[in-house]
Amino acid sequence: MGGKKNFFKPIVVTSSLTAFTVSATTNIDACTFLDGSDYSPYSVTLYHDGVGATPQTGDTVYQDAAGTIVASSNGYYVEATLTKLAIGGSGVVFDPGCR
């Protein structure tokens, strides 16, 4: 059986998501957060598919680096930029930076 063998190379897909750190809040309206009183005391790393360091309107935010679990609808405080962020039900940013 001197036939030709076919070998398939696996295709490795790398994530092009950007990590950023937030503190969660229970208030969905990111623009009306109180000054720190409704933020979670711990930090969480989330990931977005936008082009900048932090997500902007229309970017999708994920809980995992692979981009398989969208972030829950919530308000977040972006620690790197000291701004507030609101994410809708499908993980899409709808209010990226009210202060």
Provide a short characterization of the protein structure.
The protein has strands at 18-25, 39-48, 61-62, 74-78, 83-87, 93-95. It has one domain (18-95). The model has no long low-confidence stretch (mean pLDDT 75).
Output the keywords.
single chain; 99 residues; mainly beta; 6-stranded antiparallel beta sheet; 6 strands; 33% strand; elongated
How would you explain this protein's 3D organization?
It is built from no helices and 6 strands. Helix content is 0%, strand content 33%. The chain has one domain. The chain has 99 residues and is an all-beta fold. The chain has strands at residues 18-25, 39-48, 61-62, 74-78, 83-87, 93-95.
